């Protein structure tokens, strides 16, 4: 059913720290690695070793340069995957019922056995989070690793999305964003977590933590005091030499 | 947006075909027997041809039958259901007119309403998308409906009605272009709101996430040919409206009528190409494009 039912009490999602992300793309690879051999059909590549390689990915890392009014520009790496929106426009447009938002935890999924590959849901998503797989002809998107997070065959520490598990910088956090006391919700309120394109009314569950403000005070050099010249006025022989040379 | 030939064919041909069916359903022209057969055959060929073209757009057509299930929420599903209803009712009406020589007025009127409603649902598939500001406005359905009515009147030889409807459609087309060009800015989505980094300063793409292209870029960040936009608009308007109106005013024989129809159809194709090619999806912002 592609109507959005009542809002679920649990809203699982990601919190991505733009201050910490180093843009290594490890999450992209971990995501593709896990999802190409688990939920649904494989994530195909086209012309993988040829001139124009392309392929299906559920997570991609952009990089931006931000130039403030004053001071130096900063580089921000920006991972982007499905935000599991509360008012998901991709779900309501779907004619076949393949797209749905789970009542129990808010994860937005595609049932590939019902998808006809019309692509309309990808058009409806403002964030480019859905890609139609060229080989399979069905819609692919982030599943929040639904086949990991509840998977009792995996060791406990692996029961989180592959991208979160792999991130070497600890820039990705997973949890219930509807629960005010969860670690992710606290992180969001402490760091001013934000929605992407809030003007479109999708109410994303995933939040982004903005880069922390750069230091603007004077540069502090801890070695400087140790390197300061001890004598300011030369005395003795050197003083005489200095004065004499000055006169010449 | 990528102007896929299948979708252009689908919306243009089915729009024209349903326009014809609506006109025939209302008894314009009041035909029975062989001449009714010719009119209905043409109308059904256009609508069914258009609908078939849309199936070629699907990645996984074997599940197409499921598209009738989500009419409560999905405009695409509603379109599927209404098109089948409209075609069935107009089919029965056509049998009466062709073989029995009778016109069932109530049935014809119902079919006409359903035909126009189908085109409305088609237009709503595009209109509903907030992610594509140019389409997300009432003038999308108004444009589609006005072209359907004008095309239907033209195809069924309702000369005076066609001239008036074509002029109205032309005006709506110009207004739609004018307003559409301003809609992306009015939506206020920028690379700053897309990344949430706009509060810090000017945001610019430093590195794209991939070196090659991908589905998102080829489907939604189609920029080829936009630079010819203004010229193509003039061509579209000339062929779709101006030339047919002039021809219809000059002479009303079958040959002139046929030229007017062909000109109109090509004009609608150009206009529909522009409808897609000039539509900017907000996802382009993530790639520093529009
Ligand atoms: S990010 Fe896109 S695909 Fe994911 S729920 Fe939101 S609209 Fe749908
Ligand atoms: S591509 Fe599949 S999931 Fe997306 S709207 Fe079409 S049928 Fe639904
Ligand atoms: S793995 Fe972590 S640090 Fe690397 S790109 Fe992904 S989010 Fe950023």
From TrEMBL, chain A:
<keyword id="KW-0004">4Fe-4S</keyword>
<feature type="domain" description="4Fe-4S ferredoxin-type">
    <location>
        <begin position="73"/>
        <end position="104"/>
    </location>
</feature>
<dbReference type="Pfam" id="PF13247">
    <property type="entry name" value="Fer4_11"/>
</dbReference>
<keyword id="KW-0408">Iron</keyword>
<protein>
    <submittedName>
        <fullName>Ferredoxin</fullName>
    </submittedName>
</protein>
<keyword id="KW-0479">Metal-binding</keyword>
<feature type="domain" description="4Fe-4S ferredoxin-type">
    <location>
        <begin position="106"/>
        <end position="135"/>
    </location>
</feature>
<dbReference type="InterPro" id="IPR050954">
    <property type="entry name" value="ET_IronSulfur_Cluster-Binding"/>
</dbReference>
<dbReference type="InterPro" id="IPR017900">
    <property type="entry name" value="4Fe4S_Fe_S_CS"/>
</dbReference>
<feature type="domain" description="4Fe-4S ferredoxin-type">
    <location>
        <begin position="12"/>
        <end position="42"/>
    </location>
</feature>
<dbReference type="Pfam" id="PF12800">
    <property type="entry name" value="Fer4_4"/>
</dbReference>
<keyword id="KW-0411">Iron-sulfur</keyword>
<dbReference type="InterPro" id="IPR017896">
    <property type="entry name" value="4Fe4S_Fe-S-bd"/>
</dbReference>
TrEMBL record, chain B:
<feature type="transmembrane region" description="Helical">
    <location>
        <begin position="138"/>
        <end position="156"/>
    </location>
</feature>
<dbReference type="InterPro" id="IPR007059">
    <property type="entry name" value="DmsC"/>
</dbReference>
<keyword id="KW-0812">Transmembrane</keyword>
<keyword id="KW-0472">Membrane</keyword>
<protein>
    <submittedName>
        <fullName>DMSO reductase</fullName>
    </submittedName>
</protein>
<feature type="transmembrane region" description="Helical">
    <location>
        <begin position="257"/>
        <end position="275"/>
    </location>
</feature>
<feature type="transmembrane region" description="Helical">
    <location>
        <begin position="106"/>
        <end position="126"/>
    </location>
</feature>
<feature type="transmembrane region" description="Helical">
    <location>
        <begin position="234"/>
        <end position="251"/>
    </location>
</feature>
<feature type="transmembrane region" description="Helical">
    <location>
        <begin position="162"/>
        <end position="180"/>
    </location>
</feature>
<keyword id="KW-1133">Transmembrane helix</keyword>
<feature type="transmembrane region" description="Helical">
    <location>
        <begin position="80"/>
        <end position="100"/>
    </location>
</feature>
<dbReference type="Pfam" id="PF04976">
    <property type="entry name" value="DmsC"/>
</dbReference>
<feature type="transmembrane region" description="Helical">
    <location>
        <begin position="37"/>
        <end position="59"/>
    </location>
</feature>
